[in-house]
């Protein structure tokens, strides 16, 4: 008999409730397994502000050191700061965070040297197997040499690297409200923004893994309310919200209105293409707006469409030699950041674009926000396959309609498109629709929902 960690080890990371689903004993086994699977002689670790993070991170380090690997602990950090350390030090890395999940959760995001992702098909399944075996049979025998565990501060180096990729020296003064949600943005923003012509209004910068003010998940509109209100009260030029581990960033304009992540993707793509001489490949997932490939082509680039999910984006980034990639979920990937995602670098691009001209953010992003989208709408269904087949049957064979199955089902016309895809973890179908105008989008959205929920 071996332990079953299937509820703990997800497609891209480890994620579960502490101590009910995992604890420091299991973290130590994960550390040992990580070293065996990556064959690493040295690794780097970091952790967020959750109460359980320091203990889990240190236990992982002990397990890794017992297998002979030297461990560099960078301590409190954002996930993209851990990716920076993995890239700059050329070491496999492990970040202890549960991102935007509630306080009782924790997890591990792992990568190989150079921030290359570790997922089910790239080592995570093997790590799970070893941890399951050892949780029943006992920890593996220690290596002949125990690795050294040392501390290193990378925050300043991380900030310097990001600032080297975006020129902010000549921007006009801007007033910006930043909502860190008591997450790691409160740790990274002061150092990254230091010395810039910004009037920074901090909101919930106190590191507190119990999230006393609101969930650190800006994808939920309820968690943007405080930021929107403060932007309007302050007469700020914009607002920025980070999630718990500060690898995603969300933007609101001077009115407090949310800026779509697709518009941010298009804006940053245009800037990255300009920085690369007006050429390059830009990755976007299939539910980003039509605006994204249009803007990429208009700026001399080549758009490449991919499935939803950061492992697919990162794999395509590396395969295609892409300069940038963006997702509807506000993950932004950069070639100059080891193909990893960093919300902070995207935020700096938005600040540079806004500060490099005189108009308000709402006017600036209007050129990148050309269509009307539904946002993601989830429907609980008894049979995902049956409902997806019903949607396909309703549109297949219609004149002027194209269908593709890159990820779920995408149905496109000249004036609209929609995608329906099943959740991997819940009995849900996820609908995203977009059209050239609001009435058309509403009609298409309602028609598809009636089929899904019928």
UniProtKB/TrEMBL annotation:
InterPro entries: A-D-PHexomutase_a/b/a-I, A-D-PHexomutase_a/b/a-I/II/III, A-D-PHexomutase_a/b/a-II, A-D-PHexomutase_a/b/a-III, A-D-PHexomutase_C, A-D-PHexomutase_C_sf, Alpha-D-phosphohexomutase_SF. GO terms for biological process: carbohydrate metabolic process. GO terms for molecular function: intramolecular phosphotransferase activity; metal ion binding. CDD domains: PMM_PGM (cd03089). Residues 376-449 form the Alpha-D-phosphohexomutase C-terminal domain. Keywords: Isomerase, Magnesium, Metal-binding, Phosphoprotein. This is Phosphomannomutase/phosphoglucomutase. Its cofactor is Mg(2+). It comes from the Bacteria. Residues 7-135, 157-256, 266-371 form the Alpha-D-phosphohexomutase alpha/beta/alpha domain. Belongs to the phosphohexose mutase family. The keyword Metal-binding applies. Pfam families: PGM_PMM_I (PF02878), PGM_PMM_II (PF02879), PGM_PMM_III (PF02880), PGM_PMM_IV (PF00408).
């Amino acid at each position: 008999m071996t332990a079953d960690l299937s509820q703990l080890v997800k497609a891209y990371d480890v994620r579960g409730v502490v101590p009910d689903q995992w604890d420091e004993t299991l973290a130590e086994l994960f550390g040992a397994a990580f070293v065996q699977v990556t064959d690493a002689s040295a690794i780097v670790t970091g952790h967020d502000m959750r109460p359980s993070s320091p203990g889990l991170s240190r236990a992982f380090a002990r397990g890794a050191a017992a297998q002979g690997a030297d461990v560099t602990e960078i301590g409190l950090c954002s996930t993209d700061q851990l990716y920076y350390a993995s890239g700059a030090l050329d070491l496999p890395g492990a970040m202890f965070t549960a991102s935007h999940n509630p306080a009782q959760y924790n997890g591990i995001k792992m990568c190989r040297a150079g921030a290359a992702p570790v997922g089910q098909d790239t080592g995570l399944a093997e790590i799970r197997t070893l941890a399951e075996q050892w949780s029943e049979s006992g920890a593996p025998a220690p290596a002949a040499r125990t690795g050294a565990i040392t501390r290193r501060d990378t925050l300043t180096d991380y900030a310097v690297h990001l600032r080297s990729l975006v020129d902010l020296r000549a921007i006009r003064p801007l007033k910006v409200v930043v909502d860190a949600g008591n997450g790691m943005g409160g740790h990274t923003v002061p150092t990254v923004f230091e010395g810039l012509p910004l009037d920074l209004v901090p909101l919930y910068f106190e590191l507190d893994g119990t999230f006393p003010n609101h969930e650190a998940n800006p994808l939920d509109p309820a968690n943007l309310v405080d930021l929107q209100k403060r932007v309007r009260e302050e007469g700020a030029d914009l607002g920025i919200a980070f999630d718990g581990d500060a690898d995603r960033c969300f933007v609101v304009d001077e009115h407090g209105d949310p800026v779509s992540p697709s518009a941010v993707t298009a804006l940053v793509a245009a800037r990255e293409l300009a920085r690369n001489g007006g050429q390059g490949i830009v990755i976007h997932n299939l539910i980003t707006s039509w605006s994204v490939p249009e803007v990429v082509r208009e700026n001399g680039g080549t758009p490449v469409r991919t499935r939803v999910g950061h492992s697919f984006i990162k794999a395509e980034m590396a395969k295609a030699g892409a300069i940038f990639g963006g997702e509807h979920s506000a993950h932004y990937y950069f070639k100059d950041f080891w193909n990893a995602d960093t919300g902070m670098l995207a935020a700096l691009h938005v600040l540079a674009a806004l500060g490099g001209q005189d108009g308000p953010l709402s006017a600036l992003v209007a050129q990148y926000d050309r269509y009307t989208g539904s946002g993601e709408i989830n429907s609980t269904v008894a049979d995902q396959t049956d409902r997806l087949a019903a949607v396909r049957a309703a549109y297949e064979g219609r004149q002027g309609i194209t269908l593709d199955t890159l990820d779920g089902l995408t149905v496109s016309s000249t004036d609209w498109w929609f995608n329906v895809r099943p959740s991997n973890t819940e009995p849900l179908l996820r609908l995203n629709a977009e059209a050239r105008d609001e009435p058309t989008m509403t009609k298409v959205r309602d028609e598809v929902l009636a089929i899904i929920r019928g």
